[in-house]
């Protein structure tokens, strides 16, 4: 499946006039088409995107405040969608979050366009900052909330720093998908990371909590 065949996703309150899914899809696909043709992010202007999508510039600005937010939505549309958390236990929620990281890592490897876009975003401070604010930080906050609930439910020791603990959980996935992009990302890696860390993080005398 090409990037242009994927569907855009939208979160948060609507901007301006009521959204038209068909129009937004045309705009997202217009950006993807240009990227697949090899046009660098730095050369993608709102005017060029509008011309490719067959819409006016005002139509784009009613939905996105600038090209940084638009490009972030394009990347999100190309990445695997975030699944809902099962909510059965802290352990199960953590496995879902880390499994999604593993899938995103695999997607970047299998899609040359997605890999290229991520690399280009890092060279654009505005786009990279927007990606962090719109995508990365909400995911991090969600992970911290899962850990916080785990402490409240007695699944996790209360004497651990949750910010540090969050880094410990996501670290192995980031190392394998970013620092060592050729490292294995096998099925079951998320469960292995979560279960290994939880062995030393559960309150004394507690039993593992799982839906299995």
TrEMBL record:
Keyword Transcription tagged: yes
Coiled-coil spans in chain: none
Gene3D superfamilies (UniProt xref): Homeodomain-like, Tetracycline Repressor, domain 2
Name of the protein: TetR/AcrR family transcriptional regulator
InterPro entries linked to this entry: Homeodomain-like_sf (IPR009057), HTH-type_TetR-like_transc_reg (IPR050109), HTH_TetR (IPR001647), Tet_transcr_reg_TetR-rel_C_sf (IPR036271), TetR_C (IPR011075)
Record's keyword terms, sorted: DNA-binding, Transcription, Transcription regulation
Location of region: Disordered: 1-20
Occurrences of domain HTH tetR-type (ranges): 21-82
DNA-binding region location: 45-64
